[in-house]
Specification:
By secondary structure, the chain is α/β, with parallel strands linked by helices. 29% of the residues lie in helices and 21% in strands. 47% of the residues are buried. It binds ligand TNX.
Length: 617
């Protein structure tokens, strides 16, 4: 190892690679990257050595090599008596090594003859992800990896991505693909929003009607006229749920990728689907409830905090906790309309008996009682920031979504916090550009740069309380996302920006480098793999008006291998138009306007929105 280090240091001092991407294309950008001249050649003769052949990260790497048709047999270093990196053409994955790396961190050394990766558990896995991102496949079936020395570890321990499967259901294969994408970008927590007004999606053996009735709705609202709550429905029954067996399968799949799954069981609001199955859960069981067919908050339907209902809810949670290894259970707690509690004699009596202040006090009582149960089973609760109303349950972790105020308040009180504010570009159900050329969305605007610019640690938070910000998450609510293709479109490339927010030290963040040098390569990979994503507009093209006589137009493709087409006369550009190949000098005669429009079309045929630059003289 010493020899290898010395060699690397020597070469490093000679380096002359300043024009290249300092992050070597890696997303999220690592803590430290030192590029070195030369390449390692990966072929079917490459030997994989390790001190931990059973480690999941090692098995994952072997699986990757196998699929790529490269050498994938693994040799236990302990059996052959060889030490790290001494065999030519070897990749050595070590979990026992002397150097200290922070939790989830790794060190990767690549020279022309050896690759050595040091990391423990998730750290080794993330090193493998970096290595995989560095692989450049060649046409002859071999591959090269550029020489480098990388040291890396995450900024936050909680790096989350959420998926709402209630408003629209996504099947096991899709969830696995989602986990694959998360793992590739070093995200480690999958927040699975399993229940809501519009569908109950997790099998609970003790209460079978939750899925028999609660997983189906009669029809679904379609479309969304701007600002108007349209009442057009599709007249088509809709449903779906996961069996416990399927859930266990997904949990194992996630574990192999060092991802923890946090299940969310919503309460006391957002629970109409459960009340359709068991009306006794409501404050007025004489009413009939049906699984909700439209979006927004169900005006006055929430769980009634009776002892019988606590029994049902804690039974459900007990099954959920038996199923999921996660320490955290998310119990929702958001958007709880209090009218039903105000009207209910039982609730008013309970407020008096328990000496609670009002219905907010009742919400706090509800969550605290649930917390007591969850804590008694050695688990912890996470709730949306509304759980602060009326007083926070003693050990709760808060997910701050209505801006950062809730998160700041909870952290000042000494509670752990996960930042996920919609205002920070972390609501991936918001549009990526405010334009009717974008697909229908819930509204809002969360362009890539906005997600990228988010910093989860608020400046106004006291320094000694900052440690309570344990991480950051983006949410994919699916009211207006009915298909996998649209979910991918809304997710990508924003999830890559989230990954960098969650992982990369602030000082290493650089939007220009991210969007212009690294993203194009990653998008080309999605393009080839059949994964949908939003095609960014051409780099250098803008929706704007510019005044002058002479214009230099310099564009670059936002997806490697894609073509930019343009028109200069107001026509909508398409593949029959002129491809942009070289910078253009455009002279606009006096009193004239040239309407310069562009579109990007990728190798798989995906299209960007059209940009429109008006050049006015
Ligand atoms: C608010 S975020 C909700 C969800 C919606 C979402 C739409 C949160 C805790 N509650 O129920 O799906 O807005 O953006």
């Amino acid at each position: 190892m010493k020899k290898l280090l010395l060699l690397l240091l020597l070469v490093l001092s000679l380096d002359a690679f300043a024009q290249h991407d300092p992050n070597m294309g890696i997303i999220p950008a690592p803590v430290s990257v030192k590029k070195v001249q030369g390449d390692f050649k990966l072929s079917s003769e490459t030997i994989i050595l390790t001190d931990s052949p059973e480690c999941r990260a090692v098995r994952f790497f072997a699986g990757y090599l196998r699929k790529a048709g490269l050498g994938s047999s693994i040799t236990d270093i302990n059996l052959i008596g060889k030490k790290d990196g001494v065999m030519k053409n070897s990749v050595t994955l070590l979990t026992n090594f002397k150097d200290e790396v922070p939790k989830e961190g790794y060190e990767l050394f690549i020279d022309e003859n050896h690759i050595v990766l040091n990391g423990r558990n998730a750290g080794l896995f993330y090193g493998v992800q970096t290595l995989m991102q560095l692989v450049q496949k060649k046409n002859d079936g071999t591959a090269t990896i550029p020489c480098a020395a990388i040291r890396d570890y995450p900024r936050f321990p909680y790096r989350g991505m959420h998926l709402d499967v209630s408003r629209h259901f996504f099947d096991v294969d899709f969830v696995k693909q989602y986990l694959d994408l998360m793992a590739a970008y070093k995200l480690n927590t999958f927040h699975w929003h399993l229940t809501d007004d519009q569908g109950w999606r997790i099998e609970i053996k003790k209460y079978p009607k939750l899925t028999e009735i609660g997983s189906m709705r009669a029809q679904t609202k379609i479309g969304r006229a701007a600002g108007v709550d349209s009442d057009l429905y599709d007249n088509t029954p809709y449903g779906g749920f996961y069996t416990q067996e399927q859930i266990t399968d997904i949990i194992h799949y996630a574990e192999d990728r060092y991802i923890t799954i946090i299940p969310e069981i919503e309460m006391p609001g957002h629970s109409v689907a459960a009340m359709a199955a068991y009306p006794e859960l409501s404050c007025d069981p004489s009413k009939s409830y049906k699984v909700r067919e439209t979006w927004g908050v169900a005006e006055d339907d929430v769980y009634c905090p009776s002892d019988d209902n606590f029994k049902i809810i804690t039974d459900i949670l007990a099954e959920v906790m038996d199923l999921f290894p996660s320490r955290y259970i998310h119990i929702g707690g958001d958007e709880v309309p209090k009218d039903a509690w105000k009207k209910s004699e039982f609730c008013q009596q309970l407020i008096q008996d328990r000496d609670l202040k009002d219905v907010n006090g009742l919400q706090s009582y509800f969550i605290s009682r649930i917390e007591l149960f969850v804590n008694s089973r050695d688990h912890n609760i996470i709730g949306w920031d509304e759980i602060l109303d009326g007083g926070l349950a003693p050990n709760a972790t808060v997910m701050s979504w209505r801006g950062e105020a809730g998160g700041i308040k909870a952290a000042q009180l000494g509670h752990d916090v996960i930042m996920t504010p919609g205002s920070g570009g972390l609501y991936f159900d918001h549009a990526q550009l405010k334009s009717p050329q974008e697909p229908l969305s819930i509204g809002g605007n969360a362009p890539l740069w906005k997600t990228y610019a988010y910093d989860p640690v608020p400046k106004e938070l006291d320094k000694d309380k900052r440690k309570h910000i344990i991480g950051v998450q983006a949410n994919l609510w699916t009211e207006y996302i009915a298909t996998p293709a649209k979910a991918e479109y809304m997710l990508l490339p924003r999830m890559l920006a989230l990954a960098e927010v969650a992982w990369t030290p602030t000082a290493n963040k650089d939007y220009k480098n991210f969007a212009e040098m690294r993203i194009p390569h990653h998008l080309a990979h999605f393009d080839a793999e059949g994964i949908n994503y939003r095609v960014p507009t051409a780099i250098g093209a803008k929706d704007t008006t510019m005044n002058g006589g002479k214009f230099n137009i310099e564009l670059a493709s936002p997806v490697e291998g894609a073509t930019i087409y343009y028109t200069i006369d107001g026509y909508t550009p398409r593949e029959t138009d002129l491809p942009y190949t070289t910078p253009l000098q455009i002279t606009v005669p006096e009193h004239n306007t040239i309407d310069f429009k562009t579109i990007v079309i990728t190798p798989s045929g995906k299209r960007s929105v059209v940009t429109d630059m008006k050049l006015v003289n």
